[in-house]
Design a protein that fits this description.
- About 50% of the residues lie in helices and about 15% in strands.
- It has about 240 residues and is of the alpha+beta class.
- The longest helix has about 35 residues.
- About 20% of the residues are buried.
Length: about 240
């Protein structure tokens, strides 16, 4: 069973990580015998959030099938689970920080890929003397020109999507993005290794984006721990 892969989803994740730099949510930094509060010390509320994850199992993997599960083609079992009032426990701090460092290199590489793709799209616009619009159309007055432009852009997008998907799953020097995000989400939600392997990719990426919004201090703590001035620097 295939799942939709979107370059826009990764762009959203990239943007979400970069936004964490602007948060003033407080976190603790231990330096020698001194504990310091970084951020807005007046923000004392414990942040808890809810998340929903979809799991996919082979039917034979389960001893019994829950009533709320959805069975596809008598083979796959889809189960959605709610995780409520989630927060990051102190014992998991360093675990999520480690997961972050498997994630950052990918996004630095991804930004370069995105820039290259944008450049090729701009070249299509220049060649035809028209612009692409957000509604899936173009400013070209000639219908054939518009069709050719859209066709060429689709080819460019598909080529880059294949490159990014491969790097997402098998990245080497760029960090292992897929494992990093799966680890991050599983640690935060308290999911064991076997069950983690059955989380669906779209729901994991969606949960990760929401976690950057719910727990931005984790990423700032990563910066402090490794002496980085910003997430951008961590990605270099």
């Amino acid at each position: 069973m295939s799942e939709k892969f979107s370059l826009q989803d990764l762009k959203d994740a990239n943007d979400a990580i970069l936004k964490t730099d602007k948060s003033d949510r407080p976190y603790l930094v231990q330096h020698d015998d001194e504990t310091m509060v970084i951020g807005n010390a007046n923000n004392t509320e414990l942040k808890k959030s809810d998340f929903r994850i979809q799991f996919r199992f082979e039917k034979d993997e389960l001893a019994s099938i829950p009533e709320e599960a959805k069975v596809i083609n008598k083979r796959w079992v889809l189960i959605e689970k709610e995780f409520n009032d989630i927060f990051i426990a102190p014992k998991d701090d360093m675990k999520v920080v480690e997961a972050c460092f498997n994630i950052y290199p990918f996004f630095a590489w991804y930004q370069e890929v995105q820039d290259n793709m944008d450049k090729e799209v701009n070249e299509i616009e220049e060649r035809y003397g028209a612009k692409f619009l957000d509604n899936g159309k173009t400013t070209a007055k000639d219908e054939n020109v518009a069709k050719n432009m859209l066709k060429e852009r689709d080819i460019v997008s598909e080529n880059y999507a294949r490159i990014v998907l491969h790097e997402y799953n098998y990245g080497n020097a760029k960090g292992n993005m897929s494992d990093g995000i799966y680890d991050f989400v599983a640690i935060v939600l308290g999911i064991d290794d076997w069950t983690k392997e059955h989380m669906s990719a779209p729901s994991v990426l969606s949960a990760f984006i929401r976690m950057t919004e719910a727990f931005p201090e984790v990423f700032q703590e990563t910066e402090s721990l490794f002496g980085l001035s910003s997430i951008e620097e961590a990605m270099k």
